[in-house]
Write a structure and sequence with these properties.
Length: 276
C-alpha cells in the first residue's frame, strides 16, 4: 500500500470516471486502474480506492459513483391529471424491436455494466439480462417465458469474465434456459485478452472448473470484463447487434412512436386548458 501514489491514482481515477458517458461503479473503476497498472488487484487496494474516493467526494473533488445496492424508494406522484398526461407523453415508447427478424438479448455477467449497455443500446429496445453470477431458477423461467412471448427466434449476445467461472456461467445459463437459436460470447475471449492487453491475474486453483479451463486455454487465468475499455466493449456489442438488426424496420417503429407521442402531448395541453 505504501508504494501506491494515491494522489496520482485519484487524479487518474477522476479522469476515467469523467470519460464515461454514464455513471460508473467503484468495481468498474478499480479494474480500469488495475488494467492501467496503477494499483494491484488486491483487497487492500480496493479498500484504499474506496476510502480515498469517498473522502474526495465528500470534499466535492470527485465525480459520483453508482451505488446499485441503495436507492430512495418512493411512489411516483403527479400534480394533476395534465401533469400525468405530460409525463406519459415523455415516457411513451413502443416496442422498438417490432418487425425485427430475431429477438436479441444482451447478457452480461456483471450487473454494474447494465447502466452502460442501456445507455448505448437502450434506444433500440434490446433487453439486457444481468446474470450477476449463476442465475436463479426463477430468473431462468422468466427469461424462457419472455423469449416465448416474442414468437420469433431468440439470440443471446453475452459478455463475461475470462476465468473458469466466467466461462461456465453462460454455459450454465444457456443450458438451463434452452431457448436460444443462437448464442454468441462477444467478450471476453483469450484473443481479446491478448489484443487489448488486459491484465491477467492468477486464477483460483480451488475452482472446480479450473482443470477444464486449463485444458482449453493452457493456463489458469482471471481477467475481469470491467478492465476492458468501455469504447472497446461498445464496439464489440455494436458489431454483434449489426449482424441481426434491420434498421429500416426500427426507423418505421420510431416514426410511429413520434406521431403517437405527439397525440399524447396534445391531450395534455387540452387538459391543462380545461382544468381549474
Amino acid at each position: 500500500m505504501r508504494s501506491i501514489d494515491w494522489g496520482h491514482v485519484l487524479e487518474r481515477a477522476a479522469a476515467i470516471v469523467r470519460s464515461y458517458d454514464t455513471s460508473v461503479t467503484l468495481r468498474q473503476l478499480f479494474y480500469r486502474l488495475v488494467s492501467a497498472q496503477l494499483i494491484p488487484n488486491t483487497e487492500n487496494a480496493y479498500k484504499g480506492l474506496s476510502r480515498i474516493t469517498a473522502k474526495a467526494r465528500r470534499a466535492g473533488d470527485f465525480p459520483d459513483l453508482i451505488d446499485r445496492g441503495r436507492t430512495i424508494h418512493r411512489y411516483e406522484t403527479f400534480a394533476n391529471p395534465a401533469d400525468a398526461l405530460n409525463k406519459l407523453a415523455t415516457w411513451y415508447r413502443l416496442d422498438r424491436t417490432q418487425g425485427q427478424p430475431v429477438s436479441l438479448y444482451l447478457g452480461v455477467e456483471k450487473a454494474g455494466l447494465v447502466v452502460q449497455l442501456q445507455s448505448w443500446f437502450g434506444a433500440l429496445g434490446v433487453p439486457v439480462l444481468a446474470l450477476g453470477g449463476y442465475a436463479s431458477q426463477t430468473y431462468v423461467d422468466d427469461v424462457v417465458d419472455d423469449t416465448q412471448e416474442q414468437e420469433r427466434e431468440a439470440v443471446l449476445l453475452y459478455a463475461g469474465d475470462f476465468d473458469p467461472s466466467g466461462e461456465d456461467i453462460d454455459r450454465d445459463f444457456t443450458a438451463r434456459t434452452d431457448c436460444w437459436d443462437d448464442v454468441q460470447r462477444i467478450a471476453l475471449t483469450a484473443a481479446q485478452v491478448r489484443d487489448f492487453r488486459l491484465p491477467v491475474m492468477p486464477g483460483k486453483a480451488s475452482d472446480s472448473r479450473s482443470a477444464g479451463f486449463i485444458a482449453k486455454h493452457g493456463a489458469l487465468a482471471q481477467v475481469e470484463l470491467d478492465a476492458l475499455d468501455p469504447n472497446a466493449l461498445r464496439g464489440l456489442v455494436q458489431t454483434a447487434i449489426d449482424a441481426y438488426w434491420d434498421t429500416s424496420r426500427y426507423e418505421a417503429v420510431v416514426a410511429r412512436e413520434v406521431r403517437e407521442r405527439a397525440t399524447l402531448q396534445t391531450l395534455a395541453r387540452q387538459r391543462r386548458r380545461t382544468q381549474p
